[in-house]
Structure formats: structure tokens, C-alpha cells
């Protein structure tokens, strides 16, 4: 999440993972009927964000941009956090304010208190194209993994009943680990299938878990193309509480994993039972291999592997140990179920 740990005055640039073409919400959505979800384009170049200014100075998570477009240089300060290759969250005093000196702009850099108390304006950037040859955005695994049944409620103030009161609807990230497939069933609005692509997840400044999603099927302004959600996993049951904001922001009608414009309660579906041998074996991976790594987690007799190329996660259970020195293991494996 950090640019540099100290002030740099001679060179100011954005690392390659920040660069690209992004969509940002250009109007605030409300609960009133007929709200439109409109987006504008923001490009981050190596040394500038053209609509806001040229990179002038960076320190910690803040950057001062110099805007020469008014005929005379003025300066703005932005707090910038990279949450994934696809999601950047920016806080600023406001785009309508610009200062004649760097020192004056420096005094307006959003503090953690400004962010936590929502005094600073939030701007969410969702990458739509990268500067790579194919232009594709990063593939990011969803933090919600497996199969679930869910209830669903829209808190738009128009009715008191729950839209999908029974856990008959289904959600899963199968067959692709970076996409959530939702099948709404026995709901007041009928049946609906939709897919959401996970763009990134992070722990917010408030300690909550956030998730950014993209609906590639949306082609009109009547539905949000980008969504921000909060989620919480109940460790004892695996139940997931998931709430969405009304639009692409992470603040508009989004208060907690239990209180948002749309709320869902996901109950995990019990996976298929592994072969009986899994329950009788004493096989265990060695102590030196236990722990969490970039795309691998090993815990006792269980191994989780994330395969970016295949867009899948594999769960493997140790069955038996072989070879002269026990360096080979027979495994029972399955993908997202």
C-alpha cells in the first residue's frame, strides 16, 4: 500500500502496478427512483494523472500533483492506496480545491483521522484496461471460496419483506476462482442468474474486510457496473455476511457486513465427503513445510494450492508417505466444489 518510506523530491513517478486506464463513478447514486450509474475515465501514466495533474512529490501514501491547466500551477494532495492490480482507493480534500503552493497543499493531505471519520472524499478507481500488450486486467481470486446457499434483501425503503427469504439461492466461485456465480431462486422478483468478477479485496482503515466486484454483463446506466462490498466470515460455522453499497463507492449506504443497500447471508454447502481412507490415515506434512505462502497453505494434513493460470484453487489431503526418505506423498485433491 506504500509508495516510498521517505520523501523524494528529484523524481516523482507511479510504479507500473498503479498505471492503467480506470473507471470511476462520476455521479452519486441515491435511493430515489431512476438513479443512474455513470462513470468517467481516469488514466494513470508513469508521471501523471492527466485529469488531475503531474506527479510532483510523494511521501508515504500521499502524493502531491501539480495542475498546470489553469495557466498557473496549482497543487492538490491525494492519499493513494493500491488494494490490488485492479483497485485503487484515493482520498482527497476535493477536486474543486487547488492551492498555489506545495506547502499549502501539504497541509490538506488527508490524515488517518480524516479518512476514518469520512471527512475526506473517497474516489474509487477500477481498472478497465492495462498498458500490457493484451490490455487485460489482473485475474484476482475471490476471498469467498466454495459453494453457498444464501438469503438476499434489498434495503431500498420501498418494502418490509425480504426479496429472497429462503436459502434456496446459490453462490459459488466454480468453475473459475476469480468469479462469483449467483443463482437467485424462489425470490419475489423471480429467478435470475448473474456473474461477478472479483477485482480485489482488502482490510479497510476501519478494520473491515472489503471486496470490489465487476459485472461485465451490465451495459446500461440503470445498473451498477462496479460494486463495493463488506464481508465477514463466522469462523465457527463458515457463514459469510455480505453487504453491498448502492453503487461503486465503498461508503454510499454501506455501513457493515450486516447493514448495506443489499445484504446477503451465505451458508456453506457441505462438500462431498472424501474417501474413507482420508479419515483413517495418520499422514501429515512435515513441520518445516507448515504455514502460509504466496499461493500455498499447508496445515497439518491439508494443502491448499492457488493456480493462477488455471484460475482454480485445489485442496489436497495427505493420504500416505512414500519413497526411501519419505519425500513423496499420495494425495486426495479436489478443486472448488
TrEMBL record:
Species lineage: Eukaryota, Metazoa, Ecdysozoa, Arthropoda, Crustacea
Report what the protein is called: Uncharacterized protein
Q: Which Pfam families does UniProt cross-reference here?
A: DUF7042, DUF7043, DUF7044
Q: Which residues form the DUF7044 domain?
A: 11-111
Domain DUF7042 residues, every copy: 139-267
Give the originating organism.
Halocaridina rubra
Q: Which InterPro entries match?
A: DUF7042, DUF7043, DUF7044
Question: DUF7043 domain: from which residue to which, for each copy?
Answer: 280-336
Amino acid at each position: 500500500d506504500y509508495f516510498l518510506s521517505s520523501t523524494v523530491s528529484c523524481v516523482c513517478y507511479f510504479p507500473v502496478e498503479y498505471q492503467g486506464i480506470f473507471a470511476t463513478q462520476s455521479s452519486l447514486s441515491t435511493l430515489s427512483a431512476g438513479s443512474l450509474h455513470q462513470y468517467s475515465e481516469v488514466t494513470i501514466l508513469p508521471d501523471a494523472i492527466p485529469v488531475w495533474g503531474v506527479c510532483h512529490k510523494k511521501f508515504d501514501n500521499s502524493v502531491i500533483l501539480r495542475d498546470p491547466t489553469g495557466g498557473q500551477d496549482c497543487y492538490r494532495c491525494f492519499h493513494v492506496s493500491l488494494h490490488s492490480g485492479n483497485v485503487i482507493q484515493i482520498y482527497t480534500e476535493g477536486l474543486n480545491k487547488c492551492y498555489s503552493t506545495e506547502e499549502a497543499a501539504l497541509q490538506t493531505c488527508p490524515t488517518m483521522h480524516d479518512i476514518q471519520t469520512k471527512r475526506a472524499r473517497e474516489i474509487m478507481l477500477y481498472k478497465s484496461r492495462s498498458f500490457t500488450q493484451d490490455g487485460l486486467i489482473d485475474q484476482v481470486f475471490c476471498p469467498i471460496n466454495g459453494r453457498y446457499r444464501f438469503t438476499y434483501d434489498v434495503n431500498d425503503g420501498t418494502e418490509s419483506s425480504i426479496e429472497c427469504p429462503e436459502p434456496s439461492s446459490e453462490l459459488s466461485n466454480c468453475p473459475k476462482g476469480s468469479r462469483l456465480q449467483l443463482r437467485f431462486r424462489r425470490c419475489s422478483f423471480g429467478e435470475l442468474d448473474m456473474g461477478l468478477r472479483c477485482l480485489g479485496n482488502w482490510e479497510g482503515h476501519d478494520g473491515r474486510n472489503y471486496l470490489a466486484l465487476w459485472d461485465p454483463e451490465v451495459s446500461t446506466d440503470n445498473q451498477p457496473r462496479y460494486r463495493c462490498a463488506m464481508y465477514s466470515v463466522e469462523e465457527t460455522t463458515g457463514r459469510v455476511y455480505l453487504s453491498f453499497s448502492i453503487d461503486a463507492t465503498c461508503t454510499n449506504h454501506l455501513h457493515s457486513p450486516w447493514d448495506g443497500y443489499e445484504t446477503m447471508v451465505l451458508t456453506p454447502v457441505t462438500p462431498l465427503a472424501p474417501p474413507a481412507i482420508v479419515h483413517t490415515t495418520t499422514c501429515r506434512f512435515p513441520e518445516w513445510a507448515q504455514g502460509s505462502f504466496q499461493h500455498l497453505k499447508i496445515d497439518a494434513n491439508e494443502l491448499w494450492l492457488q493456480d493462477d493460470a488455471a484460475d482454480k484453487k485445489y485442496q489436497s489431503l495427505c493420504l500416505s508417505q512414500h519413497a526411501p526418505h519419505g519425500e513423496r506423498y499420495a494425495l486426495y485433491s479436489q478443486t472448488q466444489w
